[in-house]
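User: My collaborator sent over this chain with a note saying "see what the structure looks like." That's all I know about it. Can you take a look?
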Amino acid sequence: MARAGPAAAGGICDLAGSALLFLRSSALGTAGGAIFFVLTLPLPWMLGPMAVSALATIAGVRVHVDDRLRRAMFVVLGVMIGSTFSPQVLAQAAR
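Assistant: Without extra context I'll predict from the sequence alone. Here is the result:
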């Protein structure tokens, strides 16, 4: 017999699980950024979370960020990286 209610269709159970997974992923990323920052490594808040997330995934830890948020962050990263290019930087690169 099929179950009815939120748990049967995903609903609240899936939402709570996704939220916990997102919180764990965010905590790992924040820890990675903090570690890279303390070690004064370059681009700590970008490379730290990437490194820790990659290591966690290799270790078998499940990490996840909603696709909508991931796409929005690509836009933010693109603007941040693109804003560092000035006419002087481009002229220097052409030499």
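A starting point for your reply to your collaborator: Confidence is low (pLDDT under 50) at residues 1-8.
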